[in-house]
Design goal:
Bound molecules: zinc ion
Number of strands: 6
Number of domains: 1
Number of helices: 10
Order of helices and strands: HHHEHHHEHHEHEEHE
Oligomer: single chain
Radius of gyration: 20 Å
Amino acid sequence: MKIWEHWQNRIQHGFKYGFRQGINLLIPPQCPGCHAIVHDDGLCGQCWSRIKRITPPLCIQCGRGFPYAAGIERCVRCLTQPPDFDRAIAGFGYNAMSRRLILGLKYAKRHDVTPAIARMMANAGGECLQEADWIIPLPLHWTRYYQRGFNQSAELAHAIIKSAHIPADKYRPDLLKRIKKTESQGHKTRQQRQRNMQGAFQVTDPGGSIKNASILIIDDVLTTGASLSSAARCLKKAGAKHVAVLLAARVG
Ligand SMILES: [Zn+2]
Ligand SMILES: [Zn+2]
């Protein structure tokens, strides 16, 4: 490296580092869980300890935890009524702490929680992120997008791609569209949920990118899995070979 390039790099680094340090001195970063002052953009030690970890043994398809290692790969539900996605991985379990983070992300425009959640998702889903040909955020219907002003799944996907150093051209939000405004899934039976989600998604793939592709869908919470299963079904009908889902949190 020439001496001039060396100094150019040093100066650029100095500006960047100094600028960030300056911002941190003016407005110190706060823990997204409790607003305590922290040294980076992550959770404080106390909030971190309240995150519900997901530990094996897990169902290899839906990611649900088994109470004990029974030597089986799939849970009863995946054996009898499997979802249309092949694999589901969550960053953490749903509890009071993760609920606070997710609600902040979704409804309170607390975009400061995004990097912390994304890092946990990137850690949990490292293998799926590397294997995926395309990464797609679960799309919102345009009316919901208009109300909220952003898609929380897309925010997470951007942050995960950055955190896991995934090539940016793997991000393809253009491939899947939500064409039906669905009602809330709460208090519905399994059949009603499936009916509610029927025809909710549409593939928009004029270039044929989906055929034989391995796809990873990013979403915030897995509750019943009906919408993710419906999206996976739609992608598989269009020729996708493998569909995995990466979530911030899973219920149950
Ligand atoms: Zn905290
Ligand atoms: Zn399962």
